[in-house]
Write a structure and sequence with these properties.
By secondary structure, the chain is mostly beta strands. The protein has one domain (3-76). It has one helix and five strands, in the order βαββββ. It has one helix at residues 20-24, and strands at 3-10, 29-40, 44-51, 60-66, 70-76. Strands 4-3-2-1-5 form a five-stranded antiparallel β-sheet, with no helix packed on it. β2 and β3 form a beta hairpin. The chain is extended and about 50 Å long. It starts with a strand and ends with a strand.
């Protein structure tokens, strides 16, 4: 499986009250996600960033990053 590093602009959320002027100054948050590439489709990049092999549910964190949010994208070859 390929390892990918995706730089993308995420939305922000704030639970503190702020003024309208302060809200107008907010910008997307640069986020960098690294994980195993599952697939790419017309919607975006699908990757796994965490796995829990010893969990009773043997879960994993799967993430879809929409293409419109991606600013940089790198693929790394694995042995």
């Amino acid at each position: 499986m390929k390892i990918v590093e995706v730089h993308w602009q995420d939305a922000w959320v704030d639970t503190d009250e702020i003024s309208i002027n302060a809200a107008l100054k907010k910008k997307p948050i640069l986020t960098i996600s690294v994980g195993h590439l599952i697939a790419e489709n017309e919607h975006g990049i699908i990757m796994v960033t965490d796995t829990y092999p010893k969990s009773p549910k043997k879960g994993r964190v799967t993430n879809l990053i929409p293409w419109g949010m991606v600013t940089d994208y790198y693929e790394y070859k694995t042995p």
